[in-house]
Amino acid sequence: MKQELLQKFLKSKIKIKSEEKLIEYIDYCLVNSIEDKIKFKSSLHHILPKAKDCFPKYINENKYQVHLLHKHHYYAHYILTEAIETYSQHSAFCAMNNKDINNRITKSDLIPLDEFQIIQEQKGKLFAIAMKDEYINSDGKVTTKSKDIGKKSKSTKAKEYLHNGEITSIDKETGKKRSKKRRKEGNHYNLFHINNGLILKEVDEVDIRQMNQSLLKTDKINYLGKSRLSKICLNRTNKLNMIGLYIVKI
User: Fold this and answer.
1) Distance (Å, rounded) from C-alpha 80 to C-alpha 122?
2) How many CB atoms lie within 10 A of CB 6?
3) Average pLDDT, the chain
4) Quick one: pLDDT at residue 137?
5) How far apart are CA 5 and CA 110, in angstroms?
């Protein structure tokens, strides 16, 4: 069994940091395994980690599973972080270290704090790598987890639903809340034209943004449409009539 497990790791795409530690991990799991689970005192451990970046296909293979006492389960995961380099296993160990104390294991069973902090730092680096790794999704397109999360979040926020008899979305509701807050707490301005003087009094930030966001960066010297680029932008949006506008904060 030991050689079988070792070969599974070595032939996988998992990055092996130390084959010596990997052998130690497998030995530790096999030596410390107990016959049956002990309620509140043991955990079922997958020697071949079931995470998606490890061995998800073996999740239901009983021969690769052992029962370990909680302190042995904790330490097995610790050795694993020294043997292989995956975000899932570093994350799993950090979670165990934070939640198991005074519940499943005692403080004296924990690894030294400086060693734990090193694993936490490695976890952060592995997370960044995992988010950028490209893979082919179900649509046959090359993507990354970071892109997928962004698309899912954008889709969720834009999804419309019925609220108080009106069709709305998370984006729309968030916009309403921001506008309400800006009207109440935001700045107010007087709107001027470089040639015609005062145009509007006490205009709030929301209205200024709705007119043209660039107005918030204007003053009497740097009025809207003064630069060539600004004129081009206004022309593209059919807002040439706004050339010469600027604001003064009240």
Assistant:
1) 13
2) 16
3) 86
4) 59
5) 27
How far lies 227's CA from each of 135, 195, 237, 248, in Å? 45, 17, 16, 19
Which three-class secondary structure state does DSSP give residue 86? coil
Considering Cα of 82, then 86, then 87, then 91, what sign does the dihedral take? negative
Taking 90 as the threshold, does the pLDDT of residue 186 lie above it? Answer: no
Indicate the SS3 state at residue 7: helix
What CA–CA distance (Å, rounded) separates 42 from 37? 6
pTM across the whole model: 0.56
In tens, the pLDDT along 19-58 reads: 999 999 999 999 999 999 998 899 999 999 999 889 999 9
Three-state SS for 210? helix
Domain range annotation of the chain: 2-134, 187-249
**Per-residue pLDDT at 104:** 83
Instruction: List, as one string, the DSSP characters of 82-148.
Output: HHEE-HHHHHHHHHHHHHSBTTTB-GGGSPPHHHHHHHHHHHHHHHHHHHH-EEE-TTS-EEEHHHH
Rounded-to-integer distance, Cα 185 and Cα 204, Å: 10
